[in-house]
């Protein structure tokens, strides 16, 4: 019982003499009883205390509450004693409001209050004003915890930043930080979602972002910053680099700091290419719209598909013209049903011949699909919620670069025109970002430097050696940069971290496999650096069946004593983000937080709700 009360001594005068009396006051948070204190000497008993607990907090003397829980090891349901904690219950309620984006005035809804009272009559329901105040206090407390944790992080941070305009017509900046923690698991936290006043010029964005990093005290630990390709961001990142260098040197003088959003580039590249074959895409889209336009036509189409021997279970999707990935899915599905479309046209030429694609237009779509799939697969990885490590992208980008090069030299005038249109933007990204992607792949023990050499041979042919020498120089420079600042290594227990699926590693390439292992011979370790020793040792062979589940972070955790400096590099490089999806995905939540019914929320409250939701869900996943 005494866990619910706090004892204290009061000095009073009784018959002209001072007397010390022992009292106790209820310490249950939110207790509504104004006279919740009683004498606590043993001669007064505990009846008043139990009466108070029963009347105001539904706690009965001798009452034991039970609950059932499932044992994690055996999976068997077991009965355990349960103690009601009002403060913990309130905390869970606030977490539910934050995560599920409930409106604050829900606490004042009549039937909600009745529902709560039916389970616990004395539950301390608050007003919407009090709920708002306590959720803000919750946010500030969690922010202090995260700030303290960031001070203990030994690795560098990679940030993403993007802008969003709400239905309040206010511009918000979202800043996320990514890092690999001491358990070698990749982490992500939204650290700011604040209102940026005025025009979003490069100078204003730079000031706002650097201010955020300084307030979180991570300015000395920054490794990279991922931005989309807006002109203001190009100006902002230069100012950010200058400001950060005043506090601490950047790795390789900032060579890896500015990362262009690959997702944004891919969208621009594909849209430029698809404009060239716009007529073929439009014809196929029109045919799909007509076929799906009525039940009768759809049934007729399915009948034709069945007569052509096609399985009608796969869907036929219609695209959103502004989203190229949906256009890819439409073209893919339409090609599957090509015979059904042609049969339908033959049956009723008068109705369908004017919209039916020609054989040449079908062929253009067929040729385009394998290439679009490369872009689609990369975009799928970028858009993942688990934020994959950087080593997963180099091969995919190289394959796209090779496709573009081959298509630029194609005899097909349309393909050549399309590839040239796509190459302009892709080459701009390639020149500025391929080094970072290549370094990440060198840190993949399955490939090391061999995969970089393999693709440089294919891309640069006779001049590949000069490109390889340039890359080796960057690699050595980065290694020496870490050697000069590396702390003494510490030994920790090895545990497995979350694995990510590598879609490109799953695709078989016999030519690459034979190149990787043709000179698989370890050298003499004596007198060579840690980097040279790592590169000289054989690649880590993984069966094709296990390639998808290979966990590069778990591998480096196991090898951190063997390669203390390289493990530090891996920890920083593999957390680098090649797109701003982490920030952009927040805008969906932001749109729900600031919906038409909550447009009066002030920017501070919006930031509290968005950030706290991210922190709660991360904790729920078992992360830091």
Structural overview:
The protein is an alpha+beta fold and 624 residues long. Helix content is 52%, strand content 12%. It has a five-stranded mixed β-sheet with strand order 8-7-6-9-10. The protein has a three-stranded antiparallel β-sheet with strand order 1-2-3, with no helix packed on it. Strand 6 and strand 7 form a beta hairpin. Helix 8 packs across helix 13. It is globular. The protein starts with a strand and ends with a helix. About 4% of the residues have low confidence.
List the helices and strands and how they pair.
Elements: E1 5-14, E2 17-26, E3 37-39, H1 47-57, E4 65-70, E5 77-82, H2 86-99, H3 110-119, H4 128-152, E6 157-165, E7 171-180, E8 186-195, H5 202-215, E9 222-227, H6 231-245, E10 258-260, H7 262-276, H8 278-291, H9 295-307, H10 324-336, H11 338-347, H12 349-352, H13 359-382, H14 394-408, H15 413-442, H16 448-460, H17 464-485, H18 510-517, H19 530-536, H20 552-558, H21 564-573, H22 581-584, H23 586-593, H24 603-620
Parallel strand pairs: 6-9, 9-10
Antiparallel strand pairs: 1-2, 2-3, 4-5, 6-7, 7-8
Helix pairs in contact: 4-24, 5-6, 7-13, 7-15, 8-10, 8-13, 9-11, 10-13, 13-14, 14-15, 14-16, 15-16, 16-17, 17-21
């Amino acid at each position: 019982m005494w866990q619910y009360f706090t004892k204290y001594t009061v000095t009073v005068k009784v018959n002209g003499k001072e007397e010390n009396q022992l009292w106790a006051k209820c310490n249950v948070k939110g207790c509504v009883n104004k006279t919740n204190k009683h004498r606590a000497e043993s001669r007064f008993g505990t009846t008043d205390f139990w009466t108070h607990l029963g009347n105001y907090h539904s706690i009965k003397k001798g009452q034991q509450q039970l609950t059932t829980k499932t044992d994690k090891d055996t999976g068997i349901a077991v009965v355990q004693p349960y103690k009601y904690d009002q403060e913990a219950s309130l905390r869970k309620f606030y977490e539910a409001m934050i995560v599920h984006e409930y409106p604050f005035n829900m606490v004042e809804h009549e039937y909600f209050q009745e529902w709560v009272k039916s389970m616990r009559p004395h539950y301390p329901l608050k007003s919407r004003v009090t709920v708002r105040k306590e959720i803000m206090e919750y946010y500030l407390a969690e922010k202090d915890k995260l700030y303290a944790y960031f001070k203990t992080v030994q690795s560098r941070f990679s940030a993403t930043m993007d802008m969003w305009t709400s239905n309040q017509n206010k511009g918000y900046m979202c800043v996320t930080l990514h890092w690999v923690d001491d358990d070698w698991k990749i982490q992500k936290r939204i650290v700011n979602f604040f209102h940026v006043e005025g025009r979003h010029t490069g100078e204003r964005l730079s000031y706002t972002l650097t201010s955020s990093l300084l307030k979180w005290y991570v300015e000395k630990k920054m490794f990279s910053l991922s931005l989309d390709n807006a002109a203001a961001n190009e100006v902002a990142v230069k100012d950010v680099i200058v400001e950060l260098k005043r506090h601490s040197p950047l790795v390789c003088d900032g060579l890896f700091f500015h990362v262009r959003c690959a997702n944004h580039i891919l969208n621009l590249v594909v849209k430029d290419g698809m404009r060239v074959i716009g007529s073929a895409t439009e014809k196929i889209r029109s045919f799909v719209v007509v076929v799906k336009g009525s039940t009768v036509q759809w049934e007729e189409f399915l009948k034709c598909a069945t007569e052509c021997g096609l399985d009608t279970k796969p869907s036929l999707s219609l695209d959103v013209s502004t989203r190229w990935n949906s256009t890819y899915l439409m073209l893919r599905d339409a090609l599957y049903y090509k015979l059904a479309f042609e049969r339908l046209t033959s049956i009723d030429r008068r109705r369908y011949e004017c919209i039916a694609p020609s054989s040449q237009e079908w062929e253009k779509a067929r040729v385009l699909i394998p290439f679009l799939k490369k872009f689609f697969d990369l975009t799928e990885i970028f858009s993942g919620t688990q934020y994959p490590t950087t080593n997963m992208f180099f091969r995919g980008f190289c394959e796209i670069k090779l496709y573009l090069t081959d298509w630029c030299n194609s005899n097909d005038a349309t393909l050549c025109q399309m590839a040239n249109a796509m190459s302009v933007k892709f080459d701009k990204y390639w020149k500025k970002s391929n080094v970072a992607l290549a370094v990440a792949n060198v840190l993949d023990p399955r490939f090391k430097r061999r995969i970089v050499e393999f693709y440089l041979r294919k891309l640069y042919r006779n001049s590949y050696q000069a490109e390889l020498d340039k890359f080796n120089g960057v690699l050595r420079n980065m290694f020496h940069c870490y050697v000069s600042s590396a702390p003494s290594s510490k030994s920790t227990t090895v545990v497995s971290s979350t694995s990510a699926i590598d879609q490109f590693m799953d695709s078989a390439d016999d030519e690459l496999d034979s190149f990787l292992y043709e000179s698989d011979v370890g050298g003499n370790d004596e007198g060579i650096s840690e980097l040279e020793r790592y590169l000289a040792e054989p690649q880590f062979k993984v069966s094709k069946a296990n390639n998808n589940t290979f966990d590069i972070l778990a591998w480096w955790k196991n090898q951190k004593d063997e390669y203390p400096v390289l493990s530090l590099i891996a920890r920083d490089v593999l957390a680098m983000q090649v797109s701003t999806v982490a920030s952009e995905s927040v805008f969906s939540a932001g749109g729900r937080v600031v919906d038409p019914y909550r447009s009066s929320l002030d920017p501070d409250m919006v930031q509290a709700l968005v950030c706290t939701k991210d922190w709660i869900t991360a904790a729920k996943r078992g992360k830091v």
